[in-house]
Write a structure and sequence with these properties.
Length: 297
Amino acid sequence: MHRRALFGLAAGAILAMSAIGSPAQAKTIVVGGKNFTEQQLMAEMTAQLLRAHGMDIDKRAGMGSSVLRQAQENGQVDVYWEYTGTSLITYNKINDRMSPEQTYDKVKELDGKKGLVWLTPSHANNTYGLAMNRDDAQKRGIVTISDLAKAVKGGEKLTLACNAEFAERPDGLKPLQETYGFEFGRANLKRMDTGLTYQALQQHQVDVALVFATDGRIPAFNFVVLKDDKGYFPSYALTPVVRKDALDAAPKLADLLNGLAAKLDDSTMAKLNASIDVDKKTIEDVAASFLKDQKLI
């Protein structure tokens, strides 16, 4: 999320940048989005919402994270939905442990100096999580990551599926284990592509999997995300970010986007994502249905 496309492919970046072209005219709002389901959905919902309120929209979704951010800083994209932790850690290079409120305040301050305005954050926090099959977690009495640590230290041979990046990154698995005082052990760590962790857990090939909190497969596969009771994972609140120049030219953007943000939380995003990834509905239909159901259009 956010983290799934933080670096992108060089070739894709070149193509994306060449497709962006020159900065948009003031009369057209350029809506951007990254290249995974949740971001594609947010770009479509934003485009439909703004069009319904009389704005001329140019939607450019499917971009790599760093390319999209650069495009916004360069004035080539006016608005997209970013995650607080991504801006803090990836774009502003700050790795200090902060509360969700502190994270938001810090990125709002730092990005404000770059001409980017962070509007009101939603209650959807697409952070990392450790998930288990619900029946297995209940049988073992595991509710929190501390419970998981206690089980592992007690001798239970639980296996973890995670992507290679999380296994190696300095704010990933190793410091998580240090925070909670346990270790899976090399033999019990299964590295695989991010998407495969869900399948491996569903098929009981592993006991625990690294997931993203708003992924639609969590409710669809009846997973339970363990409570991060020591607050290890950073906050990744999904928030509309608008160029100040675009906001000055179209002030009603703030109320419209804040109104949409107020309708979003973890459960809502997971269900919307599942409608696309599991139920195979189109992004356009899911976006339109949600906006109409919430009386936003």
